[in-house]
Design goal:
3-stranded mixed sheet; globular
Length: about 160
């Protein structure tokens, strides 16, 4: 499944409020190093507006007998760190202040959420979703880049006023 984001919750919000997380670390018992960086897999994400549009487009379809299953995601699966670094870059270019931290606390693998995140790394095809939205003009946010640019545009004045 894809990570959901929108104008009130996104990588921009995370970076602005908590900084960029350091790479996730895991114990590596057979190594001379006490910790090793975890391999970071690709994850998918989707903007809330594209999900809403896909639901409405599905409801409008009269040719669907028995429904169907659609992967709702944008067209650019990417490692979480790549998305977070892009968010940091957007904030920096826009002169939006963050809390000043370059990195968050070191995260040691072990929490259930972290285990699930590392286990459930998948790239999914969104071809059926794009076909569903073809008559609606396609995805509003084909990648996380366009989506985060829109989130920034909708929040920048408020964020700058907050300092």
């Amino acid at each position: 499944c894809a990570g959901l984001y929108g104008n009130n919750f996104s990588a921009l919000h995370t970076v602005r409020n908590r900084g960029i997380p350091k790479p996730e670390l895991k114990p590596e018992p057979e190594s001379t190093r006490p910790m090793a960086m975890m391999d970071e897999g690709y994850t998918s994400r989707v903007h809330l507006k594209d999900v809403a549009r896909a639901i409405v487009a599905t409801m409008k379809r009269t040719d669907l007998k028995g429904g169907g299953i659609y992967n709702l995601s944008d067209s650019a699966p990417a490692p979480r760190s790549q998305v977070m670094n892009y968010a940091k870059e957007l904030l920096s270019q826009s002169n939006v202040s963050t809390d000043g931290r370059e990195t968050g606390d070191i995260v040691v693998a072990g929490s259930e959420r972290r285990k699930r995140r590392n286990k459930d790394r998948k790239r999914v095809s969104n071809d059926a979703m794009k076909e569903m939205l073809r008559d609606e003009g396609g995805l509003l946010y084909p990648t996380y880049r366009e989506g985060l640019q829109e989130v920034l545009a909708n929040n920048i004045d408020q964020w700058k006023a907050m300092g």
